[in-house]
């Protein structure tokens, strides 16, 4: 995990030997399960360290310091094989994490991994964000919502902002030129109770592509109408 350790240092993070050991276990389990179920197209030891683990940890660039407490509730929407949520949990073991994905096979991997990594306070939920976002126990229940590689921003905010508490934030990890995508999502962001704070560049030489964090603060309640039925946010994005 040398590449990860060095990259994390550039983010101002010092990973302990226990954390590096957990990332090593994560890599081994990912590689092993990926032979049976489709979890990731990124499989080399070096690439997983950078494109999965370091990329996930880049979320810390968007966090305000007092935001990370043991009381912090974090949800990762469309988590797949656990990213970016699980690397953030390894970094901050005290936080309360919910991992949400619609595919049960991926959840089976996450349950196994949670045990192998000996993590507490990790809940794995199988379901569509459109439905779980309407459930009282999850709606507006998280100070921090994160998501990577799930949908275009106008669709994504409908899947994520309903989970966010007022005063909390949603952070989307995005690649490439996203100026138009952000502009196209502006009406959706405000309809859902959000306010764009910043698009923050992740400037690390480890990444040759353009990576950035879209940071949206939740400033007012999401109207009960949202999220709409499964599939509708993708078919008919707000905006
Ligand atoms: N976030 C992970 C990552 O960056 O490695 C996985 C990205 S993968 C391309 C997209 C994931 O989002 C898939 O696992 C898919 O099942 C999940 N997903 C897509 N739409 C969803 C929805 N409406 N509700 C819950 N999960 C969803």
Distance between the termini: 42 Å
- Mean pLDDT across the residues is 96
What is the CATH topology? Rossmann fold
Secondary-structure content class: alpha/beta
The CATH superfamily is known as Vaccinia Virus protein VP39
- Our count of domains comes out at 1
Q: What general form does the structure show?
A: globular
Regarding CATH, which class?
A: Alpha Beta
CATH architecture descriptor: 3-Layer(aba) Sandwich
Low-confidence runs of at least 5 consecutive residues: none
Order of helices and strands: HHHEHEHEHEHEHHEEH
Separate helix tally: 10
Query: Biggest sheet: strands side by side, in what order?
Result: 3-2-1-4-5-7-6
Overall radius of gyration? 17 Å
Ligands present: S-adenosylmethionine
General description of the model:
By secondary structure, this protein is α/β, with parallel strands linked by helices. The protein has one domain (65-235): Vaccinia Virus protein VP39 (Rossmann fold, 3-Layer(aba) Sandwich), CATH 3.40.50.150. The protein is 36% helix and 21% strand. It is built from 10 helices and 7 strands. It has helices at residues 2-10, 17-33, 45-57, 85-91, 104-116, 129-132, 153-160, 179-184, 186-191, 232-235; strands at 73-77, 96-101, 122-126, 142-148, 164-175, 194-201, 211-218. It has a 7-stranded mixed β-sheet, with helices on both faces. Strand 4 (142-148), helix 7 (153-160) and strand 5 (164-175) form a beta-alpha-beta unit. Helix 1 packs parallel to helix 3 and helix 3 crosses helix 4. The longest helix is centred in the first third of the chain and has 17 residues, at 17-33. Bound molecules: S-adenosylmethionine (SAM). Residues 78-81, 83, 100-103, 106, 128-130, 148-150, 159 line the site of S-adenosylmethionine.
């Amino acid at each position: 995990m040398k590449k990860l350790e060095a990259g994390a240092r550039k983010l101002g993070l010092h990973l302990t030997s226990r954390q590096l050991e957990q990332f090593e276990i994560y890599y081994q389990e990912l590689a092993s399960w990926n032979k049976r179920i489709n979890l990731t197209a990124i499989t080399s030891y070096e690439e997983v360290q950078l494109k999965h683990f370091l990329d996930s940890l880049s979320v810390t660039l968007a966090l305000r310091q007092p935001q990370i407490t043991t009381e912090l509730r974090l949800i990762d929407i469309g988590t797949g094989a656990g990213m970016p949520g699980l690397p953030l949990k390894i970094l901050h073991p005290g936080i309360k994490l919910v991992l949400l994905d619609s595919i049960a096979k991926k959840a089976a991997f996450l349950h196994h991994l949670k045990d192998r990594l000996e993590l507490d306070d990790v809940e794995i939920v199988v379901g569509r964000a459109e439905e779980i976002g309407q459930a009282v126990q999850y709606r507006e229940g998280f100070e921090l919502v994160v998501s990577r590689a799930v949908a275009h921003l106008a669709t994504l905010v409908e899947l994520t902002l309903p989970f966010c508490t007022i005063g909390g934030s949603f952070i989307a990890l995005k690649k490439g030129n996203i100026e138009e995508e952000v502009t196209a999502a502006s009406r959706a962001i405000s309809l859902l109770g959000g306010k764009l704070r910043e698009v923050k560049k992740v400037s690390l030489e480890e990444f040759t592509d353009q990576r950035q964090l879209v940071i949206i603060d939740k400033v007012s309640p999401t109207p009960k109408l949202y999220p709409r039925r499964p599939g509708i946010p993708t078919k008919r994005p707000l905006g």
